[in-house]
Amino acid sequence: MCTGRVDLAFLLRAFENGMDGVFIGGCWPGECHYLTQGNYKALFLMHLCRKLLAHIGLNPERLRIEWISASEGMRYAEVMNDFSKTTKALGPLGVGEGLDLDTLKFRLEALTGLVPYIRLVEREKLRVNFKTVEEYSAFFESEAFTRLFNDMIVSKFEISQVMALLREKQLTTNEITQALDLERADVAKYLNDSVRQGFIGFDAESHRFATIAY
Known about the structure:
Radius of gyration: 20 Å
Structural class: mainly alpha
Largest sheet: 2 strands, parallel
Number of domains: 1
Strand order of the largest sheet: 1-2
Shape: elongated
Helix content: 55-70%
């Protein structure tokens, strides 16, 4: 299968299912068998997913992409042995990062639910078409990408976490802040915006917020 078929949902599903690491192997850049340059698409996706993993507290080294041709059996063995060692050194998923497993499950579910939106942002705001691996690396380390990532994805992810909590029970601003370990000012902004948009309601007597059923 061409690496161009790899989807963000596939990668996140693997981590949701408890995989400690995910490896993507593709053709060398410039040697795509299908002439679609799908390996560059996979490279873009790998960088984006690594940023998402880091944001929810997972080590981005748990996801790796390598270029290996069909004739490079020795290189394949070496790469897989190295990735196996790296993954074992990181420890079990979440545990190695000191994350509570319930918290990790909650964050991964919230992130997976955001995949359709992330696809839209990628297509409309983030998509780039470079010709070298180095250019992709530079783009994802740039201030321009960081600004777009924070504005378009991180804020939406935090809101999705807030909404997920409120679907379980009514909560105050402080309770949400403590549960998600976010800045109170950010939580207050998300809540106020969601109230104005009609997604959640506020009970003035109990000072609690709740989702609105339609």
